[in-house]
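Are you able to produce any protein sequence you like plus the matching backbone structure tokens because I've never seen that pairing?
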Amino acid sequence: MVFVEDKGFSMKVKELSGEDVTLCIQCGLCSSGCPVVYQMDLTPRKMVRLIQLGREEVLNSKTMWLCLSCFTCAVRCPRKIDLAKIGEALRQIRLRKGLDHVNISEIPKEELEKLPQIALISSFRKFTS
């Protein structure tokens, strides 16, 4: 399969994040240090590679939603790329398309009553448009 690079998508990620994914050398240090990589469908390294290739299907990944923004990846990166910023840019692109990750109407009333308000506020800041 031949991949055609869509510079528009990678440029949009760069514009929103301030991070240049073309600098990534695919060393894998970001993925090896990530504390939640075991739950991700794409490793952080693969997420960056798909962005480099202009593959917008990365927007369907749960990786950007699982990022803890702990900055372990940024500290380990020899190119000083901040993947937390890239994840936020991907979430913004997706949310600007009106594709929410959390639907409040699908949360059972009993759960809403038990959930701490701060959890609801933070999840809606991160997960909804």
